[in-house]
Specification:
The structure holds 2 protein chains of 2 kinds.
Chain A: H1 3-35, H2 42-60, H3 66-90, H4 100-127, H5 131-147, H6 159-167, H7 172-194, E1 201-203, E2 206-208, H8 212-251, E3 279-285, E4 297-305, E5 307-308, E6 313-314, E7 333-334, E8 344-353, E9 362-363, E10 365-371, E11 382-391, H9 410-415, H10 423-432, H11 439-453, E12 455-456, H12 472-478, E13 480-481, H13 483-496, E14 501-510, E15 518-522, E16 526-534, E17 538-542, E18 548-549, H14 559-568, H15 598-621, H16 629-646, H17 657-663, H18 670-680, H19 691-706, H20 710-718, H21 721-727
Parallel strand pairs in A: 12-13, 12-18
Antiparallel strand pairs in A: 1-2, 3-8, 3-15, 4-9, 4-14, 5-6, 7-10, 8-11, 10-11, 14-16, 16-17
Helix pairs in contact in A: 1-2, 2-4, 3-4, 6-7, 7-8, 10-13, 11-13, 15-16, 16-18, 16-19, 16-20, 18-19
Chain B: H1 9-32, H2 56-59, H3 69-81, H4 85-98, H5 103-117, H6 120-138, H7 146-165, H8 169-181, H9 189-199, H10 203-215, H11 220-233, H12 237-253, H13 261-273, H14 277-289, H15 291-294, H16 297-309, H17 313-327, H18 339-352, H19 356-368, H20 380-404, H21 410-439, H22 463-466, H23 471-484, H24 488-504, H25 508-521, H26 528-539, H27 547-559, H28 561-566, E1 571-576, H29 582-590, E2 593-595, E3 603-609, E4 616-621, E5 630-634, H30 637-649
The chains are: A alpha+beta, B mainly alpha.
Chain lengths: 732, 659
Amino acid sequence: MSVSQHTRQHIPFFGAVISFRAFWFILSLVGLNAIVPLGTPLAYTATTAALGVFVASFVARTRLNSWGFFGLMSALWLASGALFWLADLLLADFSNRFFLNDTVELHTTTCLLVMSFTSLMTWIFWRVRFAVTLEMLLFVAAAVLIFAAHRDFHLDRPKIINSLAWRLHVNHLTMLFIIGGVLLAAAICYLLIASYAIRPRVDHAQIQRASSTSRARAWSLTLLALALQAGLVFLIQRVVYNHFNQIMLARVANGVGMGSEQGVSPLSFQSALGSSNQPAGLVRLEGDYAENPFTPMLYLRESALSAFNGREMVFAGRAYDTDLPVVKPQESFTGKEDSELQSRTPVVQSFYLLADHDNSFALDYPVSIVQLKNPKPGRFRSTYRAYSIAPAFKPSEISTLPVGDPRWSAEIRQHYLTLHPDKRYADLAAEVAKDFGSPVEKVRALTDYLSRTAIYTLTPNHTVQQGEDPVAPFLFGDHRGYCVHFAHAIVYMARSLNIPTRIATGYLTDLSQAKDGHVLLRMSDRHAWAEAYITGIGWVPFDVQPDQVESHADTQVDAKLLEELMGILEPGEEILPPESTRDEAGMTDPDDIWMPDMQHLTAALYSILAAFVLLKLLLMFGWILPVKPVTKLRWGYVSLASRFHDLGISRAFGETRSEFAARTPDHALDEITKLLIHATYGRKRAKELSSEDVRSALSRGFSSLKALPRWRRLLAIVNPASIFKFLGGRTW
Amino acid sequence: MVGVILCARWKFMALLVTVGLVLSTASAAKAQSPSENTDSQQMFDPFDPFDIWGTEELLGSGDDSAKSAEDLLREGTLLLETEHLLDARTKLLKALKKQPEDFRIHLMLSSYYLVHVGHYRLAMKYIKRAEELFEKQYGPPPYGRKDLQYQHGNILYYISQTRLNLDNYQGALDALDQFSNLGYYNDWYPGSRAWILMKLGNIKEAIRVARLGIISGAEPGRTLNMLGILLSMNDQPQESIEVFKKAIASEFALGSSGQPATPLNNVGEVYRELFQEDTAESSFLRATSLKDGCEHVLPALNLTLLYIEQMRYEAAISALDGFARCIAQYPLRNSEEHAALVNLARGRIDLHTGNVDRAIQRFESALEGTQWFGKIGTNQNDLMVGATISLAQALDRKNNILRTHRPLTWSEWVSFKRDIASNEVRSWWLMRRARQMLASELNDIEDLIIRNTDSLLEYPTLGEVLAGYSKGSLRRRLLYQRELDKRAPAMTYYDAYEAEGKLGWFSKREANAMLDSVIQRARPKTDDLLRTHVSLRRMQSLDASSDVYRDTAYRIFYTAPAELRNYGFKLPIAIDIAEKNSALKNAIVGGPFLDASQQSNVCVLTGGPKSDNSGYALRLSCPGNTARNRSVEASDYNDVVNKLSDALFREEIKNGSGT
């Protein structure tokens, strides 16, 4: 085979690789533009990206060396600079716009930047053996750079992850997992296509294709890599992903978990980095709550830990803390109102949970929890309405009140006063509260003390051995900790002052970030706080608000998401049909990511699948339909050839049909090929062809097929290769 | 920032109109069915949040599920009027469930979301549905009956206002066109139309509409205010001030229902444009002190920007804190509403006081934030450009700080180098992007007119961006601006820009002469930030060992210490440390300090290893300004230098709650 023939033969491969690269660069550009707007229309930058690939590929086929190529690029930049400099000098009055020249220059240099990058990468690709390794390194570096924020559980960075996760109804971690899997698979496929073993090589004017052996090896390696990736993804999904997803789903977000098992604590002392901006739910206040004594904060209680197990506070079980409903969000609950409690007001709240929760939660103590109609089951995991008897006292009113409930038995009272064995808690409490008389003032003195001295950090990094007190290194050490440490310290100290206390867990949210009484709860709002029982008032939060903050999980509320969720709630589309505002501008967020309608997408996928099946049937059995022998012959040949193609036996480039027929197992195509050639070119004209001859030739062909192993024939049936060949318009 | 015009009167007016409309029809319905729900009123639900003491007679008590939609609507309306907003919303939603085809409930909910909540998309859904239902009930317009005309006019008004809030100005105008084409008229019409025309850039027509409105007796305060804004935009500042004065008087005359903060803020903006800063400041202060002014970001923001130009950062923070405290009183709105603008302003304060990391976070938040601009004069492009430039400057300043920050470990050294490279690229890209936006989206830097009220640019430091444009383009643009602008103080700014441009075009001598002239001409106090910025630019050409450099450095160090390090300059000091501590001395000169032991009138740095070998201690004494004396201690000689530079060049200020 001469060089020119060789080159011509491989030009399609060469073209395919170039097109694939151009497509890949354009795709990357679209992604980049979504994260960092380039300011220049995508059509221009995409065109120049593709141009860079094509020009560099063309130049790579010439005798130009690397210096020449770099010279060419530099000349392009210099020419562009000179052109704009001249334009600034000479075309001053050409336009009535002062900065037209600068505007064009800025757009041009953006395009030149893109083109320089793509052409440089393409030049290296064709000329350097390890180019793909370099590209992979760049690819990994870019991915690391973009997703670097996730190392601290900031799973919503870049913002596009947030939007994608929300659109696909998955959480951020799942979205990351999906993106990671897709990128890895894409990288493997790219390695296959672009690897030196497979891609055509440019040797000056010639294009050489890799040998079939090395191609086969590369294919095998790629398949192996994909299989390994699938295994890896499975393993990660089962072990790592599930573990972190559990954390994400608030098992220990902000150090505050959800369990309510007797004798167990859902709190974690080691690190609170499990928190994220992931939305946990939406709370809607159904009425004004102007009497809120903690304005603008809202404490939503989920559970309480009142038993001390020698090491930490744990859930005491149903015999204590009877004000808690402890029911799943999918369950209803009816409790009894405590009529002895003063300064209370009924507050109705609706909850629309976006993440799984073990228990329902509500403002102070709910007397009733009822299920709500879920306005969007795909979006909300569960919905319920809570009727709470919420506190309505003024903080100054409780200062002199006694603590504890006179109705408690001695055993219950002792339960809430169980002391920590470490005397230092009592000593410190006595010292801090020595100047205060009433129990309430004393607890306030304790919280004020910690608010002044504690340093809020999500990573206290205390070394605590099994069985050791995890609070001591905080309170008697560096004072670095988070809500879990603060709440424990207050409870231990307050109990030493004979004040009944416990730890409450749930959410702490800021109503100043609410809109229309709707609060978006995030996992970063998970909280634990100390509570003391004030006679006639009930359990009252005494929360530490540290002045010194080293790190915090607090992030801005996603206002767009909040508005979108508000739009989902009642009254619903039957009352506010979307058609009413279809033509209104500004009704959708311009930053929203377009996502195809899943129904349409599914329908399209089914249609494609159906078309594939039909085509396959046509290829396999299409010969049955024609009546004219010559048409039946042609379709029959296609049917047999396509089946062999699916079995991996294809006519090679430049091979005649007769040569191919001689190569088929048991010369299966010999007879039909002869008939076809005769019918087309030979003396036996098409009209002289008899049905008998055709049937016999076909029968011979099909019976030869049957000689092949059954598993191969079955595999061939599902192999779509013949469909692609048919769609590509290539001859059989 | 011609802004607060519509955020005042229209709310109350709209609400009153709707409440009146609903109550009149609801009362009529109630009168027709006096015995309705008699049984249900005897039921008692302890969890009914609408059981408000003292309003039982008005609202009726009992189970809402047994009440008619008419009753619920009436109660919801009353609750709205008595500011029980969440209760009102729940009542109205209950009414809507019972009577989904009643346009009045949709109208009330639209008003609720438009006026109280600021959820404009939801407001639009309700009002469009109300329009559909109205037309379904009474047929398409025109209507012969007066009451129907009145109701339909209100629907059109709400549509117009909601579209305006959604930044759909043409749509808002279309709704008003429909209103006038149907022969409707109301007091608010001229003011609203003029505002929308102004947003569409049709100033002349807007002035005509506003003048006609005043002649025809339209709501005086609102229309005069609108006219004042338009005149100021039409380069008639003195006339606009006179009109604003009338508007203020007119609003004050209305007593508690007046909205004087709006024209007060607007007249302050005109004074600021005229470089009458003291008068502007008092106008803004008065606006923020009024009930109707404190809830809006613009008076506080204007005041903050004014203080920043005067380098009065604590006063600037106080202005923003005042706004934050005020907005916290409105339970239905959240702080997100103006977060972008507030973050931008707070970020600039952080930047100029050396808290660069926090500034970067705030600018990034400002760029990410959502801000509706329908009710204020500025727009998204202004915000984007302002925040982009500030972020680019902050990244550049961050690099200057990192370059003089002593790494404690090798890994820190590597991470500094990496950060410097990434900040450099980001800063370059953002500046470039800002120039692109200024030239394209902002039409050849239409905001170049100093203190343009619509703009969010920081004028004293704008030259830094402009210097990136080509020589001819910028020269021609500045020439054109000088011809247009007749204000003498503005010329100082244009000269500063030209000088900065020349610095970038290798015309250093000419540039320095211009910079010197700008430093001389900049007005004390009011142009302090400009003078500081230009002085720092001038320092680039000075020999670091010269007396001029020393004097300039100390002048800046005593007035704006953070800026010296921010711009990458070193402070000349006399180092009085024993020769044997060469590592410490090297660390000091490697930090933001210059060994000027030979010079007089410089601060003296003393100290060294502590006597007990537990670390290092340094003390800087400034004979000229003892307030700048600082002492620091650390265990490492590099760390002690870092602590000293932070103590000197970063002002510890409490600027908001952090991001």
